[in-house]
Write a structure and sequence with these properties.
By secondary structure, the chain is mainly alpha-helical. It contains seven helices and four strands, in the order ααααααβββαβ. The strands form two sheets. Strands 1-4 form a two-stranded antiparallel ribbon. Strands 2-3 form a two-stranded antiparallel ribbon.
């Protein structure tokens, strides 16, 4: 599903807001105390709009592919937050657009805090089960998933090739779900 996961999480966050369980304009630490304070307060609304100053991956497409982690994380949300632990904001929140897959790990943590449920369980029960999407699951590289499509990438010359190994367990909310048909 890739980055479509981001829109699912924005929708889930708004569902929690409608229920009165989430204040989109409160500092994210209200729901995700594991996220350290930064030089400016950050809200869930800013993160979802890519206005929180949170960086995306470092480098260009080539260095991003080469820096992809083969490490598998059991605690997906905490692992993603660990990548952000020492990060400084690229800009004051609300001032500049900075697309960020990493920021959506923070949204996943907020969803966990506001719903009092594990992120993957909340999304499964509130999106995939009602929609009849029984084959949608976390893209766990070590799970045998029949008919899984291999990851492909494009090099600088435009040649499509098999992608380097990537375990997306640290970024499930930002793009780590897979749909198998």
């Amino acid at each position: 599903m890739g980055s479509i996961s981001k829109s699912l999480n924005s929708d889930r966050s708004h569902e929690l807001w409608e229920r009165g369980q989430l204040d989109l304009d409160a500092p994210v630490q209200k729901y995700c105390p594991a996220f350290p304070q930064k030089q400016w307060p950050i809200t869930t609304r800013q993160v979802m709009g890519h206005l929180a100053g949170i960086r995306h991956y470092k480098g260009n497409r080539k260095t991003i592919r080469k820096s992809a982690t083969p490490r598998h994380f059991e605690n997906q949300i905490q692992a993603g937050l660990d990548f952000l632990r020492t990060m400084l904001c690229l800009s004051e929140p609300g001032r500049q657009f900075h697309y960020s897959t990493q920021g959506y790990t923070l949204v996943g943590c907020v969803i966990e805090g506001a719903s009092a449920r594990k992120y993957v369980d909340f999304v499964r029960q509130n999106v995939f089960v009602p929609a009849g999407m029984k084959q949608t699951q976390v893209d766990n590289h070590f799970t045998i998933i029949p008919y899984r499509t291999p990851l492909l990438s494009e090099d600088e010359s435009g040649t499509v090739e098999n992608a380097d190994f990537l375990d997306s367990s640290y970024k499930i909310p930002g793009g780590g779900w897979v749909v198998v048909s």
